[in-house]
Specification:
Elements lengths: L23 H6 L7 E4 L6 H8 L3 E5 L3 H12 L7 H8 L7 H6 L6 H14 L5 H17 L10 H8 L1 H8 L10 H15 L8 E3 L3 H7 L4 E3 L11 H13 L6 H12 L2
Parallel strand pairs: 1-2, 1-4, 2-3
Helix pairs in contact: 3-7, 7-10
Bound molecules: S-adenosylmethionine.
Length: 271
């Protein structure tokens, strides 16, 4: 088996803008001692939810972006399923094809042949035997897409992306080649596989991941604590701009940013 079956409950490399990974333990330290459950209503990359799971709470996570839903489905709701060698073989088997990514995002975010690889992998993920395995595979492909993307976000134009992926240019200008942008999706997937597999564990609770607008969710979830970490005012809050491309990839459809925009307006203008 390529993956390591040892579990270390260590949060894997996610790289999420606005994540609270470094202070997740400190945040959870403020939870009342007698609390048994928490809702992380804007769970993003899942760092606080993961720490709360480690602490033994029943964790309910939510984020409006489906890419974040799949992350928490894989690492919070999932308590035991990992990707085996045979799953990995299934994901990477076959010939790259001209699908949704090739037609819509060639030379917008990735080179055409890279889009064709993504199209093959997306199709193959549907052959995996469970929703948790699919969520893990999507999360690992997300990680691979982010590693190949300058500044780790999808709101740069193609000219800039190509320039920053040019290793000679990058070295001349920044003294860093950033060769990892030009490694394959498969390379990055395999590089992260064991840390994602090892991050899967059970805390004995039935944890749940949701993919909803917080304004709908609050009506249907009841927990002892609600933790709110919405997008900040000011800059670096365009989460749809940063990661919406991965939502498009997951659904093979151009998605709409409307609800994120609503949150943005509420936070910045106060309704
Ligand atoms: C600051 S980030 C949360 C970071 C997270 N605590 C972590 O550690 O990674 C804010 C999150 O709110 C989500 N969001 C924005 N509008 C939302 C809405 N209306 N409902 C639910 N989630 C929303 C964004 O997608 C983003 O992931």
């Amino acid at each position: 088996m390529r993956s390591n079956s040892k579990k270390n409950n260590k949060f894997p490399e996610i790289n999420y803008i606005g994540n609270k990974e470094k202070i997740a333990d400190w945040i959870c330290g403020y939870f009342p001692k007698d609390a048994r459950s928490v809702l992380d209503a804007f769970s993003g990359g899942g760092s606080v939810a993961y720490q709360a799971k480690r602490k033994g709470l029943k964790v309910v996570c939510n984020d409006i972006l489906s890419v974040n839903y799949f992350l928490t489905k894989a690492l919070i709701e999932n308590s035991s399923e990992i990707l085996t060698d045979s799953d990995v073989e299934t994901i990477f088997k076959g010939t790259p094809l001209k699908g949704f990514m090739y037609k819509n995002y060639s030379e917008i975010y990735f080179f055409p042949e890279e889009c064709m690889e993504l199209d093959l992998y997306r199709k193959n993920i549907e052959k995996l035997s469970s929703e948790f395995k699919k969520a893990l595979a999507i999360s690992l492909l997300r990680r691979a897409m982010i590693r190949k993307m300058p500044y780790s976000r999808f709101n740069l134009d193609w000219k800039k992306i190509k320039q920053l992926r040019d290793e000679d240019y990058s070295y001349a200008k920044y003294k860093r080649k950033r060769a990892y942008h030009n490694k394959s999706f498969k390379h990055h997937f395999l590089d992260n596989l064991s840390s994602y597999n090892e991050a899967v564990f059970s805390n004995g609770k039935k944890n749940i991941a949701y993919n909803d607008d917080v304004f709908n969710l609050l009506k249907k979830v009841k927990t002892d604590i609600i933790y709110l970490d919405p997008p900040y005012t000011g800059t670096m809050n365009n989460y749809y701009g940063f990661y919406g491309l991965v939502d498009d990839y997951i659904s093979s459809k151009k998605t709409k940013p409307l609800s994120c925009l609503r949150t943005y307006l509420i936070i910045n203008i106060g309704f």
